[in-house]
Amino acid sequence: MKFQSRISHFLFMSHPNKWLIAYNSISASLWTIVLFNTIFLGASLGQPLLFDKTNKITTAIQTLAVVEIYNSLVGNVKSPIFTTTTQVFSRLLIVWGICQALPNSPANSHWCYITLSLSWSITEIIRYSYYATNLAGPVPQWLTWLRYTTFYVLYPTGVSSEISMIYLSLNEASAVLGDWYKWTLIAIICTYPPGFYMLYTYMIKQRKKVLGTKKKLQ
User: Fold this and answer.
1) Is 155 annotated in the active site?
2) For all residues of the chain together, what is the average pLDDT?
3) Catalytic residue at 124?
4) Which residue spans traverse the membrane (predicted)?
5) Looking at 70, 155, 167, 200, which residue is catalytic?
6) 120, 123, 124, 126: CA torsion to nearest 10
């Protein structure tokens, strides 16, 4: 047991960068699977078969993001614990609170499930690839540009898709779990506009900071 403990300490504490590079690289690869499934299965099968074939693996991959809460909590990354937890649990609400808890919700067979999967997967492939590359060495300019530009489109489409998923599930939530769940979902929808505004404006400031600095250096 002591030997295993030392190995764990070596991998995760003594060399946190190696752990983070591995986690971000694996996450980028997993979200590539989601993107592949959404594009090719969506084109060949369409809805509702796309949901039936992909919802479990998408749920599993998204659930892996709870590791980010741990990384923030122990200081492996600089992301604020509150912001990280909020973002992760908003995603978990969709995959567990809608896709798994309400499998017959009309949202699951709607086009918003497709735009949700596309927005999430493209965002995460870019984000995790950027993080992994940044930890390993210099980041290519094109990847930095993607990281701090694509959010202009992907954040609005992702958030609108999440809201659509929740809204279209309200009646099913009431029928399956009761009115308390329906009103809980309604309350959560109300938190999206201020949360989106804060995150969106933050990313705009970060874009100016990062890309503006690169331009000055050139």
Assistant:
1) yes
2) 89
3) no
4) 21-43, 180-200
5) 155
6) 160
